[in-house]
Batch of 2 targets.
Target 1
Amino acid sequence: PESGCLSIIVLGASGDLAKKKTFPALFNLYRQGFLQSNEVHIFGYARTRITDDELRDRIRGHLLHGKGASSENSEDVSKFLQLIKYVAGSYDAEEGFRLLDKEISEHEVSKNSKEGSSRRLFYLALPPSVYPSVCQMIKTCCMNKSDLGGWTRIVVEKPFGKDLDSAEELSTHIGELFDEPQIYRIDHYLGKELVQNLLVLRFANRFFLPLWNRDNIDNIQIVFREDFGTEGRGGYFDEYGIIRDIIQNHLLQVLCLVAMEKPVSLKPEHIRDEKVKVLQSVLPIDAEEVVLGQYEGYIDDPTVPDNSNTPTFATVILRIHNERWEGVPFILKAGKALNSRKAEIRVQFKDVPGDIFKCKKQGRNEFVIRLQPSEAMYMKLTVKKPGLDMSTIQSELDLSYGQRYQEVTIPEAYERLILDTIRGDQQHFVRRDELKAAWEIFTPLLHRIDDGEMKPLPYKSGSRGPVEADSLLEKAGYVQTHGY
Ligand code: BG6
């Protein structure tokens, strides 16, 4: 592992993302010994004029109540908070960034290590509108200058652009300032335990290898549901909608890992090469295979315009034009204010040919990977009903992580991904060409929605979403199974 001083700079330090995700993830890394006090310093940067202690007070509560936290942590919390310093400044003027650079350099001089190098990690927990200026400022004022080596890296959050053109413009701008190995485009779904498990599952198990194709699989669903609405984020959400917020990034990334070919090796570039190929094989979306919805009450949010056409629910069918997947619908579904909170992948197999048990009505074999809550994988299969009867029932082979791996606390996605950025591992980050291919798939549909050519159907808060989505699913070949 690299040694030397590490400065982690959280830009947008007083915002929601930083408080709820970035700082708690850093704290968990600290608690587990991945961030050593004698090497690390954390800087918060934002426009608000507050003191170091005021920032610490804002963060403290989130650390004490985060995942894996307990009252025993309070001493750790205090020590961790002491590592944080705050610098106030604007996002588009050099003055603040010069001050930030001075603070970082002073820290480097004090901690360094004549022998060590300096590492600077800039985490942009910011609205995308300021990315261009912030990246420019970092480049002008804050790059690592140590002769002893080290690096400067930046982490950017989605939304990365609003459509193909705006994303490309942003990519070009950032690409002129930083090299691709310095840019970490974060998609936190790639940090989830069961998403990271997908490649292992597919390529380390003989069970799946011969079955994972159009000959055996009828359809695949990738589903995201939330049982709450936009909750104070209406202003942001209305500009983006569910497709940009969830489907074009989180669900599409999952699709890549479910559908891609075996990479040459586990090297990040090999994996990402295969993901890009899948994305490039996706056919243009057919508007007939899309259902949009908006929950009733969405426009009551004062930050949402009364005539908003923004979907809070969407089911979109993608079709992959290649030898493995021709004819298999990939049904991506995401919705806010639904009846449950769940993210899962459902792989539904075809009917058994020449069925002698007449068990077709009970349902098909289905392999379900539940990403959250309560990580699990289960296979729905037909077995003989135990007892004297020679009839069949649907049952499950079930691997629930909570039961099987009781001693393990599953890390938060952000924790894992931040550690990767420090280690320089880009495997779980989105490469520029991947991002472009992802926008190519969705941009025509998004433009039609933005232009009001396609309208969301109303659905009740707390429901399953518009019934039309269920009909689309059935039309695509999905068969509802019973017994689970
Ligand atoms: C974010 C979206 O990227 O993911 C939010 O902007 C959404 O709208 C969140 O609530 C869901 O993340 P998770 O990890 O809770 O599924």
Target 2
Amino acid sequence: EKGGYEHFMLKEIHEQPDSLANAIRGRLDFDLGSAVLSGMGTSPRELAEISRVVLIGCGTSLHAGLVGEYAFEDLADIHAEVQQAAEFRYRNPIIANRDLVVAISQSGETADTLAAVREAIQKGAFVMSLCNVVGSTIARETGRGVYLHAGPEISVASTKAFTCQVAVLLMMALKLGRGRRFSREDGYKLAREIESIPELVARVITQDARIARIAEDYAKNEHAFFIGRGPMYPVALEGALKLKEISYIHAEGYHAAELKHGPIALLEQGTPIIALAVDIPGKDKTLGNVEECRARGARILGIVTEGDHETAECMDDYITIPRCHPLVATIPAVVALQLFSYHVARIRGCEIDQPRNLAKSVTVE
Ligand code: F6R
């Protein structure tokens, strides 16, 4: 059932070009330069009235929401914010009737997310879900939303669900963006970029053996820092979560600008810094932060854009992703980090599919 792979996690990482193709298929309208997401069940008028999007989730799904926040603001010109589901529920959230609440959950059973959904419905919000498991509790209780179609995710560490969540959020932002920020022509261009995601991810996966070799040099460390800016900031958080949960290395994700406000005190000779240095706005600033880390003896693994040799040369090691739209780039970038974490954990002899203390769905609050 692992299809010849040593672990479900590796199988699911490698499956991503297919799962993403399934998540995207039939959902792009190139004539309109928009996305067709019928499960959203909204009329054009309702869509035009949405004034704020609140994204809720836990763990990896929360990180997908953080990418979504950039997408809704940047592509759709709609105020967006992300809240950890438990926090949303207990802070007495302010909900107006033109707010759209999007609950993100692979399993559709996470207790905190479900409780937040119930709270939002009770407060009269317009609630939608983004689930993978068809007929799951969150999908049923929200009544509307978009399924990921990623296929069953067995490995405890979420991989293909994350990339499909981001792909669907980009399509939601595209749909909301048409009629606001987006002309048909711009919508068409973005739709083409989204269509190419499976191919972009496949190009990262061809580097698997190289990434496995790079991982050899990072597997002995007990600490690691992931840094990024803009949409690469949530990717840094997700990279750190992946590494810590399966390899038990203490990993932290930081906004690149935050390092010098404290964490830089922890850097020693050889401390790994994984820098999301993809060629998007803000890259030069991130490179400045990389230099600050190098001056303290850190070892730098860069995620860089193909053909950006100058940036690759700033790194001790690097993995490339194809050149693409900055928001789309979050998907291949996270795949590079999934493979890196997987190989580090494998080299360390960890129980990759069933990390200690973790369960696939967290049904207690
Ligand atoms: C991490 C991971 C968890 C889940 C979280 C939410 O790899 O899998 O952080 O993302 O427990 O689960 P869902 O998406 O099922 O609500």
